[in-house]
Design goal:
mainly alpha, two-stranded parallel ribbon, 2 strands, 53% helix
């Protein structure tokens, strides 16, 4: 499981998904969806966005749960 608040790579640093691929590991990358990105805003360190960001992440959890569960089950078979 890769929780990636920033899903893209920057400069010579590959994206989290690409890093997992290079390591040869079966990984699921979970990053903020559109609603979460909007809730986080432009400044990821803005404490005023914490509540909205947490609510957006909680709401997103139900959409990624099936994929996370499947990956978790594969890893523990």
């Amino acid at each position: 499981m890769v929780l990636a608040p920033l899903p893209r790579g920057f400069g010579p640093i590959a994206s989290p998904g690409r890093q997992a691929e290079r390591l040869g590991v079966d990984a699921i990358v979970v990053s903020p969806d559109q609603a979460a990105v909007a809730a986080i805003g432009k400044n990821v360190l803005d404490p005023a966005a914490r509540s909205a960001s947490a609510r957006a992440g909680y709401a997103q959890a139900s959409t990624v749960l099936p994929d996370v569960r499947q990956a978790w089950d594969r890893a523990h078979d």
